Structure formats: structure tokens, C-alpha cells
Amino acid sequence: MRTQKMIALVKVELKKLYRDPTSLAVLLAMPVVLTLVFYFALGDIPTWWLEGASHFEFLVPGTMGFAVIYMIMLVAMGLCAYREAGLLKRLASTPTSPYEYMGSQIIAGMFIGVFQGLVVLLVSVLLGFRPQGGLPGLVLASVFLGLLAVTSVGLGLLTTTVAKSSGAASGLSMIFVIPMMIFGTFLTAFSETTYSIARFTPNFYVTDSLTWIFHDGASLSDRVIWQNLLILSIITVVVVVAGIQLFKKTEYR
Amino acid sequence: MDYEGTPKARDEIVIKDLVKNFGDVTAVNGLSLDIRKGELFGLLGPNGAGKTTTISILCGLLEPTAGSAHIAGFDIGKERQKAKELIGVCPQEVAVFKFLTGMENLELFGNLHGMDKQVLKQRAADLVNQANFSDAARRKTKGYSGGMKRQLNLMIALISDPEIVFLDEPTVGMDARARRRTWEYIGSLKDQGKTVILTTHYIEEAEALSDRVGIIDYGELIALGTPEELMQKHESKDLEEVFLKITGRRIAEGS
């Protein structure tokens, strides 16, 4: 793998974000708006899960993960748009291997995903949320967010192989986004059933871990954290390998 | 041409019994062809004849159903990446990043070819200067006219100074002046010793530029030779007449 090629491609993805108003809106406005909505809707309601905390504060870790899973849509729509413009074929005609290309998508996705999650955290802190765990907790949370972002890129690659257009990609990505949003983020602890279903969504392990880190100051030495990290890593590898293989077969040789 | 062994040095592209099926449709049907080093080869054919499919296979974008293709001795099936290092592709559609400037597009594709930073900078500057494109190159391509986008499309294909250049309908949508200028430019590629494979719907373009022309229809090579040879053989005043005679006859035979 040539780093020169991957760096060039990562730069393109990052430039797209700040030069394309739609992408910029998804990147910045979405996590900010999301956090504000939850703050104004749930900021005064005490949660029954954590003593002395509002329901908004309880949901901050889940909201961070929720912001990241929109990467699925961002990646799928972006790649479908490239395909429609003939850019995927053009890129594939260069001596850049599918692994270098998809590697660049994963790296860019990781940056963007972590950034989006941290935007939620920053806005939440400005609104009064006080996370535990200090800097090590923040680093650990970023690792979880990064893995979730990589999983989301993998799911975005899978969506691209099925979607015929960028419009269809936005709709199809909801097949992944909605269950992850409902079960892995907001209704996780609602009942035994939702909890069982949630365990099949990758962001459950992020929501759960970030809740432990930010509300209880948990660290990597805590069993729940390293167990979640292990499970999330396995999910990430499986999804990314499946996404890369299918994308390589159908879109980028 | 020795199809069984290593291609001879003078043959830059060697295609042997190439077949490509899409489901029940055969797009390329047993195509065999060799293209010489430094040659400007015109690949002609009616819509759906299999030109773009053939080019896509040669560029490593499609896997052939059967047969083989070699680019400068590299098997496109087994040594795809090595073959891709030698080629530049100007696709039929304008494929440029809209949110990047012209220069950024050139630099990106240069980087994807693994070019040295300084060499890339110089090469990009040379290309934009030659094409009188310096001012436009600093702007985002979103605001480009159709002709400017086509020019950039061609420059991207040439950024790596490739040995072999595939030009798929490079002048579609250009006005007469831009087309004439592009013809001159394509002609100059041959002077630089590059092997050029040109597919076009403009028969006069192929006649003016090509050393040899291959006409394909229904995925098969139905005529091959210099424009003069083909005109003589088919007793025609120009290549367009040859084209219409050959492809028209096949339509009549098929009906």
C-alpha cells in the first residue's frame, strides 16, 4: 500500500466536507442540532437511570454514537454520487488498488466520525454536561467512536453495492440507521426485549461503554469496557471485510 | 504476432479471443487485435458495438469472460496493477471532482499514479500551460463550461505521462475550434511516442488522426487497416463511406 495515494484520497474526502455545503451540514449542523433538540426536550426531565442527572445527560453517550452512524448515509451517498459521475471507474483505472481506495475511505470516515461524536460532547459540555473519566476517558471514548465510524463506513460500502443512485442510497442506509438509532441508542434500556435486540447493533457497545466512561469514570481495566471493545472490534472487522469484498467485486476492481 | 508466447516488443497491446458477456448479451465476441507501440489506433463501431466494453477490459475495469489481453507484456487479468501504471484513461463521461480545482484534480490523479511531488508539479504546470488553462486550473471545476471540463478530462488522462493513452470519445460536446485544437493535441501525443487508442463517433476524426483503424460491430472485428487501405478495399471515397458500407451490410445480413 502506498501512503501517498491514501493521503491524497483522504484529503479529497476532507476537502469535500468543507467545500460542499450539504456535507458540511451533515458534518457540523446535524450533531449540534441533535444535541440542542435533546437538551431542550429532555434537559429538565430527571432520568430514572442515574441519580441526580437529567434524561438529556443520560442520553449524551448514545447521542455521540448516533451522530457517528450517519456516516453510513454519508459514505453511501458519496460513493453513489462518485459512481454516477464516472469517478469510481476513473479512480479504478489508476494503479490505486481497491484496498488503498477503501483504506482511504475508512481513515477519512474515522476522522469524521470521531469529530462528529466529539462535537456532540463539546456542545453537551457547553450545555452543562460534566463527563467523568478525564483525558483517558476521552481517548477511550474516541477509540469506541472511531471503531463505530469504521463499522459505519463498512455498512456504507455495503449500501453502495445495492443502491442504484445516491437518492436510493440515502433511503437504503436507513435500513441500518433506524434500528441502530432506536435500539442501540435511545430505547436500549427500555425493556428486556429492546435490550436483547440492542445487543445486535454495533452502537449498543458504544452507548454502553460511553455511559460507563462518562457517568462512572470506567476505564479499560473494567471488564465491561474491554468486553465491549472486543465485541465491537469483531463486529467492525466482519462488517468491513464484507463491505470491502462486495465493493471490490461490484464497484472497484 | 505470437499469441501463445510473450507479446513481441513492437506490440503494445495484444488482445486474443476476447469475450465479454453480460448475462445473455455478448458485448465482445472473440476479438483478437494487436496494437503497435507508438501507433494511433482508431477503434470505430456503431452504438453498442462493444468499443467501450473493450476499452474497459483493457483498463482493468472489467473482467473478460474468456480470452486474454496484454498491455506492454502485462496480462491484464493477472498483472492488472502493473498494466494500470502504464496507462492513462480519458473516459467518455467527464469524470472530475467538482469540489476540487482543475489543478487539484490533476495533482490527485498524479498522486494516484505515485508520481514524485516535484515531477508532478512540473508536469501539471506544463499541461495547463500547453492547453492555455492556467487561470481555469486555479478555479473549482464546478464553474467550468462543458468544453473546459472535457479539456481537464483529457489532461487528467495525461498527467502521469503514460505510455499508453485510451481516449474514449474525447471530443464529444466540443465546439469546432476546441475539437480542432484537441485533434492537434492528440496528434502531438503520437509525436511523443505514445500509443493512443481512440474511440470516436466522428469518423472524420478517426480518419484524420489514426494510423490504423479497427471497426467492430456486435463485438467482432469486421475491418482492420489504415484508412487508405480500407477505402481502397471497399472502393469508398472516405472512411465514413467504408463504415456505412460495412456496418450497413451487417445490419442487412442480420435482418
Structural class of chain B: alpha/beta
The total of helices of chain A stands at: 12
Characterize the overall form of chain B. globular
Secondary-structure element string of chain B: EEEHEEHEHHHHEHEHEEHH
Order of helices and strands of chain A: HHHHHHHHHHHH
How much beta of chain A, percentage-wise?
A: under 5%
Q: What's the N-to-C terminus distance of chain A?
A: 15 Å
Domain unit count of chain A: 1
Explain this structure to me?
The complex is a heterodimer of chains A (253) and B (255). With 253 residues, chain A is mainly alpha-helical. Chain A has 12 helices and no strands. Chain A starts with a helix and ends with a helix. With 255 residues, chain B is of the alpha/beta class. Chain B has a domain at 93-162. Chain B has helices at 51-58, 80-85, 102-112, 117-130, 134-137, 146-158, 176-191, 203-209, 227-233, 239-254; strands at residues 11-22, 25-36, 40-44, 66-71, 74-75, 87-90, 164-168, 195-199, 212-217, 220-225. In chain B, helix 7 links the parallel strand 7 (164-168) and strand 8. In chain B, helix 3 packs across helix 4 and helix 3 runs parallel beside helix 6 (146-158). The longest helix of chain B has 16 residues, at 176-191. The two termini of chain B are 36 Å apart. Residues 1-9 of chain B have low confidence and may be disordered. Chains A and B meet through helix 1 and helix 5 of A and helix 2 and helix 3 of B.
Could you name the key traits of this structure?
heterodimer, A: 253 residues, mainly alpha, globular, B: 255 residues, alpha/beta, six-stranded mixed β-sheet, four-stranded antiparallel β-sheet, 10 strands, 25% strand, disordered N terminus
